[in-house]
Amino acid sequence: MTDDMKELKDRIYAQLENVIDPELGVDIVNLGLIYEIHLDEDLNVRVEMTLTAMGCPLAGTIVSDIRNALSELQEIGEIGEEVDVEIVWSPPWDKSMMSRYAKIALGVHES
After folding, report:
1. Is the CATH number of domain 3-93 3.30.300.130?
2. pTM, whole model, 2 decimals?
3. CB of 83 within 8 A of CB of 43?
4. Where are the beta strands (DSSP E) in 1-111?
5. pLDDT, tens digit, for every residue of 67-107?
6. What is the 3-state secondary structure (H, E, C) of 63-88?
């Protein structure tokens, strides 16, 4: 991966920090919901992520918010036409995947 691709990937993660889980009020990156960002040579993006619970009624809202957030990145809007969001269930999400910030914000105490 080139330095430009790494820098774009970092900016994608930064944009995703603006996507707030509507139920928890914390961004999806700090919640640990983003498993991987895949970029191809045309700058098409595939976001591999999970949700805190199967059957989450807000999945469509979160996916839409991801697409809207990433549309603000000039490179993706110009060259890459595709932002694909893939929701996976393996590995299953648990509270240990949250950042320290998210744990503090939600009052989660580590055992």
Report:
1. yes
2. 0.90
3. no
4. 34-39, 45-49, 83-87
5. 999 988 887 755 545 789 999 999 999 999 999 999 999 99
6. HHHHHHHHHCCHHHHHCCCCEEEEEC
